Fold these 2 entries.
Entry 1:
Amino acid sequence: MKEINTKTYKIAFGQSGYSLLNTLIENNKYSKVSVLVDDNTEKFCLDIFKQIINKEISIIKINSGEEFKNLGTVTKIWNDMTTQSLDRKSLLINLGGGVITDMGGFAANTFKRGLDFINIPTTLLSMVDASVGSKTGINFNNLKNQIGTFADPKLVIIDEQYLETLSEREVKSGYAEIFKHSLISASIFNLLLENNQLYFNEEIINNSIEIKNKIVLDDKFEQNIRKNLNFGHTIGHALESYFLNKVNKLTHGEAIAIGMICESFISNKIFNLNLELVKKIKNHLLRIFPKVNLQHENYEEIIKLMSFDKKNYLDKLKFVLLKDLGIVKIDVEVSENLIKESFDFYLS
Ligand SMILES: NC(=O)c1ccc[n+]([C@@H]2O[C@H](COP(=O)([O-])OP(=O)(O)OC[C@H]3O[C@@H](n4cnc5c(N)ncnc54)[C@H](O)[C@@H]3O)[C@@H](O)[C@H]2O)c1
Ligand SMILES: [Zn+2]
């Protein structure tokens, strides 16, 4: 697979990615190279990674899970960086899913005012989304990604080998972002719908990364077009936060799958998005993501969480909606009633 260029770093695939990494390490003469893993990526991914790296590494290990994407864990990472004597000439390699790449990027970018890091995403979601685009961050006060920075990795390596140990639930979570990319760009949408089940291949992964990269190249700091990537996320993030402390947590993808169904419905009401298309989107996503039982009495609480969303400005609930496949409208005000109706539509 041909590498993808961003303005400042490369997204490279498989062996050629690892060659670039070894060259980078050699050229930069890093004082230390440390690898950030969680319980699962230590178990499933670290051995694969160790086979390709030519330099001695130290390990920083954290607990796995979104509930650990917080300041407490960042403090632990900073402590380990200190103990391992990392300095500004050191390199941190984030080997893991979106939690690792977001939090590792943040820890590296803030430690001693910033050291180099690279991302090796090991989940489908982090391959097609989280590891690309230079957003780093952590959750704060139960709200998603409230604290963070924009920071470029030196390199991103996509190696599908890592996906072999990923659970089906996590694979589906990444698929939700692939599907989102197909809605906001209109490419690969028909291919995904034709299969009408969980389906992706190397080319779809590549295409999905290209879509995200192109948008980020145009608008890294999310002044306009990057907001397109938030389709499904205003409602999705609120649901993710809402379920975070419940027994039945949602994966990011599960939450935004619901978000995409609801926001397609709202798009129909406001921009006349074709109703047949809305139904196709709903049916496709419900085939893959089992319905989550939202309760009427919880609607208000979920909507309240939306007002903390970074996309919202001066208390208005702002949405990203579709006028058609690939035609996106940003900063659209939506009433609470219409949001509630969209939950009813999801449940119907
Ligand atoms: N920065 C961005 O632009 C951006 C974009 C999208 C999502 N995100 C963030 O990404 C996070 C979600 O990413 P995620 O779904 O990858 O979460 P994650 O990192 O929690 O990974 C999901 C689970 O899979 C495990 N895992 C990872 N790789 C594995 C492998 N190869 N084999 C077996 N298990 C493995 C992890 O330990 C974890 O339990 C969220 O925090 C979200 O906010 C960031
Ligand atoms: Zn997302």
Note: The radius of gyration is 20 Å.
Entry 2:
Amino acid sequence: MGKGRLWKRSLRAGVLTLLAVAFTGCAIGNGPQSVNRPAGDSMRKIWDLFLPIFWLSVVIFVLVTAILLFALWRFRQRPGEDRHPEQLHGNTRLEIAWTMAPAVILAIIAVPTLSLIFELDRKPGPEALTVRAIGHQWWWEFQYPELNVVTANELHLVVDRPVRIELHSVDVIHSFWVPRLAGKRDVIPGWNNVLTFTPQEVGVFPGQCAEFCGIQHANMKFTVVVQTQEEFDAWIRQQQQPAAEVPADPLAAQGRELFLTPANACMGCHTVAGTEAQGKVGPDLTHVGSRGIIAGGMLENTPENLARWLRNPQAVKPGNKMVLPRQLTDQEIQALVAYLTSLK
Ligand SMILES: [Cu+2]
């Protein structure tokens, strides 16, 4: 291959790579999990710190690369030239300069970074909402200890009200991450981390486990629903209701029977408040019908998906901890789905 062609090829490959990087950047930039559209105070502060440091790094990168390329070009070996470059040894001034410059830049970056780390860790006032987020392989449990509410995979918060999230794990290390609201925080068994932030925008924000925690780690997602105080209060009132009543629909009533039959094992793993089902292995199902997602955010909560799940949870989410003692019949599945969707 001639020199010219090699040059052209490398140039083309370089430009294409840069474009690809730029375009993925665009896609990420508008996505629901983009950190560059902060909707919470913590993320806003982190982003405001990140941006200037990013641009500072870009300037340094461009400068260093330009000097390097210039040196390569300017001092290249010319045709017919046969000499060694001039040999130098030591230049105290230069060495002091190139040690000091990075040290000074790092010191400048360290001051706001360290102070923000401490600022983000500050304790919120008494007006804060307290939530316990419990990582399970592979779904999230959310408890509101002061409000007596337990739910799964869907966290409700109040706009402009600080939240104090106590992070617990029942098995391995997970990590709680809602990119648009706050930074990541590890969820460690036997060690209770706390994450504090204030959501600043009404909306639905996807989050996910950010620590590899086993085979279904990628399906350990959740959503954060940020609401006004009134909407939140209405949601809390609804979640506080026990679901004890036998549904009027005969199919759903049959589903309830199946659910509460010990041999079917549902009640050994799931809780439905107000019934004998008080299992703690799987998500609390007292109000499962009111939630948008199931199975760690892997499926939308529709009757079809519930049926798929009950037909064979291991085929839908291989390795998950829901193991049924036997294959349910189609009729039983329809009855259970009717019951589960009635649990609003
Ligand atoms: Cu996890």
Note: The chain has nine helices and twelve strands.
